[in-house]
Amino acid sequence: MCGQGSAFHREEHTNIEIEPCPSALSMLSIFIGDHRKLQKDFLALPKMVKQQKRRGLDILKSTVSVEDPTMKKFAAVLAIALASLSTVSAQCPRIITRAGWGARAANTAVLPTRPAPWVVMHHTAGAHCTTDAACAQQMRNIQNMHMDTNGWADIGYNWCVGENGAAYEGRGWGRQGAHAPNHNSRSVGVCIFGNFTSVIPNLAARNAAQQLITCGVSLGHIASNYWLIGHRQSNATACPGNAFFENLRTWPRFNPNP
Questions:
Q1: Which residue from 93, 59, 56, 58 is spatially nearest to 209, judged by alpha carbons?
Q2: 102-141: per-residue pLDDT in tens?
Q3: In Å, what is the CA distance from 84 to each residue of 36, 73, 78, 219, 226?
């Protein structure tokens, strides 16, 4: 902290660089610039949330006792950010990153319209999955099909959700998907594993999907006034299945006439 020498000290996993008092402004700008990445790190590493919060609080305790006005501003921003990270973490479902399910490397375009004003729901129309291993295998299967058979740059969906209650990172936030031709450039595509022509996704999957949308809004990737639609409302298809589509009509922000 301030007065402990001139060398930078990096708090592992926090991306906060701390140096002597003369460069306190740079600390503040580094923190503000990286806070969305910190949020993503928190979501990707849920077991480390408490540890990271403790580290942040240690930094906060060190800064609040310093008389430098800039350091006090930094402490205030840090306190707000820690509270924000705790809130966002609570709003998001369990996240399985691309590394977590064994994704192939891919290079996709940035989403042109951000935050996304639309969320498009899909089903795979295939097998259901209720375990982490089975859902991860589904992700790999779909990615292989989309890349090797369809010739796409990556798995088409931004996110997939399993009936194990976890959300799987596809193209992820802020990337243009390949899931609904009329909405790809302005939407987040969320797919639930399974065929929902006659049955609806289980409660774990429905909750995880709705939490994922709330999470996206909290992180600034989905517009707060977004509209939710089913794939069939974007182009001619049976997706996301008759039963699921009827259930989708009851979800917040559903738009019956997009």
A1: 93
A2: 999 999 999 999 999 999 999 999 999 999 999 999 999 9
A3: 10, 17, 10, 10, 21
